[in-house]
Specification:
Elements lengths: L1 H16 L1 H4 L13 H6 L16 H5 L8 H6 L13 H21 L11 H4 L20 E3 L14 E3 L9 H8 L17 H12 L14 H20 L27 E2 L11 H4 L20 E4 L4 E4 L12 H5 L17 H16 L26 E2 L1
Antiparallel strand pairs: 1-2, 3-6, 4-5
Helix pairs in contact: 6-10, 9-10
The chain binds copper (II) ion.
Keywords: Copper, Metal-binding, Oxidoreductase
Organism: Mytilus coruscus
InterPro entries: Di-copper_centre_dom_sf (IPR008922), Tyrosinase/Hemocyanin (IPR050316), Tyrosinase_Cu-bd (IPR002227)
Amino acid sequence: MHNANRQLRKSYSKAKTRKQENQNGMCDVEWRTFSACQYKRLPQNIANNKTAGKLRIENFISCGVRPDMNTYDIIASIHTGSDREHQGPAFFSWHRIYLLLYEAALQAVFGRDVTVPYWDSSCDQAMGNRQNRTFIFSNKYFGTPFGYVTEGFFANLPGKRIIRCIGAEGGLTSKNAIAAVLSRTSHSQIVQDGQRRYFFEGYHNIVHRWVDGTMAAGLTAAFDPMFWCHHAFVDYVWELFRIRIRNAPADYPLGFPLHPPEDLMNFRNYRYRPNPPITNREGYSSRYAHLRHYEPAPSCQNHCSNSPDLYCNRQKDICISLERVPEERYAKDRDALCDIGTTLGVDNIPVGSADSTTTMTALQRVEQAVLQDFPACTPLKLFKINQIDPNARGISIFDV
Ligand SMILES: [Cu+2]
């Protein structure tokens, strides 16, 4: 813990030296390397927090957003799974801005030194056939791995119920996959569906499917708060890549009809836009990258960042997650719990590999349920300007 604190101080001072340039005060770390003091700063029930209700601003209420929707739900429902923010180069920049939007909301309520820790799933991937037992799905971190999330940090969140069913499909991100992506020299090489080995968005997709349940579909994924930890890691790895190739945003890949470089990013069915507007290509620039700072992922070289829940496997030269202790009852009963078949409080979302017609119908129902919360209306401000220091986060003021 002493070392972790020292590391934290280090990251603070690093952030401080860059503060003038970046207006930022906090470093993002792998969750398992949190110090006790960082734990206090992580708002554990963001979706439940009464203060967060302050962000459910009058604009929204006058616009017919259901009163039981809290700020978290509203932000989560922005992630529609549209192909204008997925399946192409804007995936990286759109999700970076989206992550910053969420972070801005957290910081407006909890203060500027709150940040989203990232989840490096390669530490769990390295567990091989024991991945389902990873300690990251224990009370200390993500909580319940199978069924409704009733334990852990995000237990029993109000509103849309979240569900998981880890390990049946998809896969976690291996160190080799990350190394393969980072071995490329241009963004165009890591955004091609056809080049599986280097297709970073694809590696990201299968993590969503590995968690399953709420996380499995774009429409619902962001309702599970672990979404942000997964995407913070995507953002971290992308940043390693972006820095390495040096010539972003000029390197923004062309030839994706739905992801033209000069298109303005849109949020929530294209009604909300950051103000000032950001193009897909501009999202690749350092201006936005500098709004987040990452501590290096745990490695044997940094003693797994002194995490008590990781150990270094010297043979493989990789940090590996410990297993959940046997007493944690949700480690068992997988089959019973995974057969619930509902998620989000909306009827009958099949979990796992239901046939695709059923899945589509169910997803359309979710879409309808989400959309009815957002009737067409006059332009909105997503946040009150004076609730967020405009200098702290460049994109924290969302506007149409
Ligand atoms: Cu994702």
